[in-house]
Design goal:
With 129 residues, this protein is mainly alpha-helical. It contains four helices and no strands. The protein starts with 21 loop residues before the first helix and ends with a helix.
Length: 129
């Protein structure tokens, strides 16, 4: 049986009580949006297949995206996930290149990621709706 070196050390297993810093939240959200995009590929590939199968299929997909609330919501959700994932990915690439690896730099890049992603999400919503 494994025994901790310092058994008097407090252990907090309730993640709802932990205050995550903004860079941690953007990193976690980056992973979540990656999963959303992976699952969303099912809908995107289905729509692409249907739209390329025939002129009637293209009209059906176009009408669904033009008039169906759920289809618009899914499209906006996928575009929003793509926007955040893209911006956060650039943030991670800058970090891998050695830019903004300090605490202050990480917070500023996380703030920029949130602001730029919010602008892109709003623009995607305007475009879809």
């Amino acid at each position: 049986m494994y025994r901790a070196v310092n058994s008097k050390r407090p252990v907090n297993l309730d993640l709802t009580t932990i205050q995550f810093p903004l860079p941690a939240l953007t990193s976690i959200t980056h992973r979540i949006t990656g999963v959303i995009l992976f699952i969303g590929l099912i809908f995107a590939f289905w729509a692409l297949d249907k739209s390329l199968s025939s002129p009637e299929g293209f009209e059906a997909v176009r009408d669904a995206l033009a008039h169906n609330f759920l289809a618009k919501l899914i499209a906006w959700g996928l575009l929003s996930a793509l926007a955040f994932h893209f911006v956060a990915g650039i943030n991670h690439m800058l970090m891998d290149a050695g830019y903004g690896v300090t605490l202050e730099g990480g917070v500023k890049k996380a703030q920029a990621t949130v602001v730029l992603s919010a602008v892109l999400v709003i623009l995607a919503g305007v475009w879809v709706w």
